[in-house]
Amino acid sequence: MASISLHGVSKRFAAGVAAVANLDLEIAHGELLVLVGPSGSGKSTVLRLIAGLDAPTSGRILIDGEDVTGVPPQQRDLAMVFQSYALYPHKTVRENLAFGLQMRHVETASVDERVREVAKILGIDGLLERRPAALSGGQRQRVALGRAIVRNPKAFLLDEPLSNLDPVLRIETRAELTLLHRRLGATMVHVTHDQEEAMTLGSRIAVMRAGALEQVAAPMDLYDRPANTFVASFIGSPAMNIWPGTMVRAVGERALVGVRPHDIELTPTEVSDRTGRVEILEPLGPTTLVHVRIDDAPESRARIVVPAATRIAIGDHVGFRVQRDRLHFFDEKSGRRLDVSG
Amino acid sequence: MTGGIWGIGRRLAIAVMVSAILFPIYWVAVASFTPESQLFGQVDLVPTRLVFDHYRAVFSERALGTAVWNSLIVAGATTLLCVPIGALCAYALARLPFPGRTLVLTSVLAISMFPQISIVSPLYLLLRELRLIDTYAGLVLPYLTFAMPLTIWLLVGFFRQLPRELEEAALMDGASRLRTLWTIVLPLSWPGLTTTAILTFLYCWNEFLFALCFTLGPDRYTVPVAIALFRGQYQVPWGQILAGALVATLPVAMLVFLAQRRIVAGLTSGAVKG
Asked: Sheet of A254-259: strands edge to edge?
């Protein structure tokens, strides 16, 4: 197991587009770091740079303190799980699992043993003689994971490994991945565009946008103290309400105010902060997401989460109140978090 | 909707086109079994009497057997050389980032566009210097000049459409580039390799100009040259020529027939993303 560091890493593609710009990132030994961001934010590029599949335009990449910037992927001893799984279609599951070990000249007897062991951990020991084409999506995903695990690499790089699974299987596999990480104690870098996946999996989350890191923190820190409006609206579902310039700080400065839909409650109109008309109702099961068009600011809507049992209908005129201690303030221009003490 | 008149009409049109294509071949076949004396008389569509005179003649008097053997060796050797070397070049051009890659690829194409006749004389001088006139090598080497670009272009197209992630997975698994080519790319490229091999073989099998210029006698004549030289100063032995044509066509026709699915798949693959 290993630590991974990126120092001032940039990647510019031929067209001159910077996919990653001057990125610094430390991934500790045994950590599960999730790289999350919208598509095109450069998160997969970061993974490929760590893997050695792409070379950075500038900057250094270190594994266990050793500079591997110029080292080809074969010699980095990292394992990667691809979004498409990239199983070798002409090889059986057994051969797929064994390939990495054979390339490292492990003797046949221990290859067999190791393959059996990993197949058992992942529950694919009954499929060893099948080819990928004869496997279901979930089974293929397991084989792809197995191919990474079998080698005992220094670190695992997972490129949206869950995105091709159906929702039920995805949540199941997500939990298994957490267990697997605990069991292996391995360094893992997991790329996803799904903030929920990031929140549930990561010991730390790095949020990326347009090739740069927006914030790196533990899941609940990101949720509780987003560094800027981008992180605030990207992390947490339903997304945070951010209203422009509607509140004035003690000093009299204008700012953006953010409040999560869970931190707003519906109240009788007489005792409310604001009132508005219910425009959309989205039942989420245990709760319902209510979109309210605000009376004072008709261009803005408030997203409010209420218990599913709440009696409410489209067109209702309602009042709502925000929890004062749960407000987030952001600079109007830069979108950066403003800390208000007291 | 599509049945009835349209369906019948379509089938009829197909039948007409297919017969138009197949009739000359049928005619050649019939003529090759017809005695020379009757060839220019009244010939029936369905022959009443078949003779093997022409076939006997082409193999005994004309040594067509030697020509077939020569063709097999030359076309076979060219194919065997071309496909492995071409595969290596094509893989590098398809996948490895190096400066001037596009230039190399365009040059390869440009070279294959040279009219053959323009390089016959320089090649002749070169081969004479190397003492390769009237040898198998003297045909195989020039054949590489047009077979190699063909091979490279076909295979570049084929390799490019393989999912890149498969190769990256192999690299991550610790395989070298060559190892990846050998264990992952080539096994997955069988349709492409077969198509390329067959097309290369066909081009060499049919090649006439180089074979005519760089061979000196029946010992090294290939089939097209041998058949072309059947005609004498005063007479054209049509029966023998047609028999020879059929003999020359048969092996390649068989080859194409056996591999037709692969050829079609190989030629059209890459055109549409699967």
From this structure: A241-248, A254-259, A328-330, A337-338
Residue bearing tokens 């008097």 = B61
Render pLDDT for B99-149 as a digit per residue (tens, 0 to 9).
Answer: 899 999 999 888 888 888 888 999 999 999 999 999 999 999 999 988 999
| A88–B184 C-beta distance less than 8 A | yes
Question: Cβ of A84 and B187 within 8 Å?
Answer: no
Model confidence at B247, pLDDT cuts 50, 70, 90, reads: confident
- Domain-located, residue B24: yes
Domain assignment present for residue B149? The answer is yes
Q: DSSP string of A90-141?
A: TS-HHHHHHHHHHHTT--HHHHHHHHHHHHHHHT-GGGTTS-GGGS-HHHHH
Enumerate the residues of chain A whose CB falls inside 8 A of the CB of residue B187: 90
A vs B, Cβ pairs < 8 A, gives 56
Q: Which two tokens stand for residue A239?
A: 């997304």
The pTM of the whole model exceeds 0.95: no
pLDDT band at residue B267, thresholds of 50, 70 and 90?
low
Q: Confidence class of residue B191 from pLDDT cuts 50, 70 and 90?
A: confident
* Residues shown for chain A: 342
Q: Do B267 and B179 sit in the same domain of this protein?
A: yes
Q: Is A133 on the interface with B (CB under 8 A)?
A: no
Among the partner-chain residues A53, A84, A100, the one whose CB lies closest to the CB of B173 is A100
Band (pLDDT 50/70/90 cuts) for residue B61 is: confident
Q: Is the pLDDT of residue A332 over 60?
A: yes
Q: What domain range is B6 assigned to?
A: 1-51
| Predicted confidence band of residue B37 (pLDDT cuts 50, 70, 90) | confident
| Interface check B119 vs A, CB under 8 A | no
Judge: B171–A99 Cβ closer than 8 Å, yes or no.
no
Preceding peptide of A238 cis, ω within 30°? yes
- CB-based contacts of A247: which residues, under 8 Å, 6+ apart? A255, A257, A327, A329
CB-based contact, B258 to chain A, within 8 Å: no
Mutate to test the interface with B, among A82, A150, A159 (most CBs of B within 10 A): A82
**Domain shared by B265 and B155, yes or no:** yes
The verdict on residue B200 lying in a domain is: yes
Residues B20, B134, single domain; the answer is no
Q: Are residue B38 and residue B118 in the same domain, yes or no?
A: no
Q: Is the pLDDT of residue A193 over 70?
A: yes
B116 in the same domain as B39: no
Residues B79 and B175 in one domain: yes
Please give the Cα distance from A124 to A141 (Å, whole number). Answer: 11
Contact call for A53 and B163, based on CB within 8 A? no
Would residue B57 count as lying in a domain? Answer: no
Same domain, B45 and B87: no
% of chain A exceeding 70 in pLDDT: 96
Q: Under an 8 A CB cutoff, do B169 and A103 touch?
A: no
Q: Are B89 and B223 in the same domain? A: yes
> How many domains would you assign to chain B?
2
Sole residue written with tokens 């055109």:
B271
Inter-chain residue contact B174 with A90, CB threshold 8 Å: no
CB within 8 Å: B188 and A78: no
User: How would residue A247 be classed by pLDDT, with cut points 50, 70 and 90?
Assistant: low
Touching check for B190 and chain A: CB below 8 Å? no
Final residue belonging to a domain, choices B11, B28, B51: B51
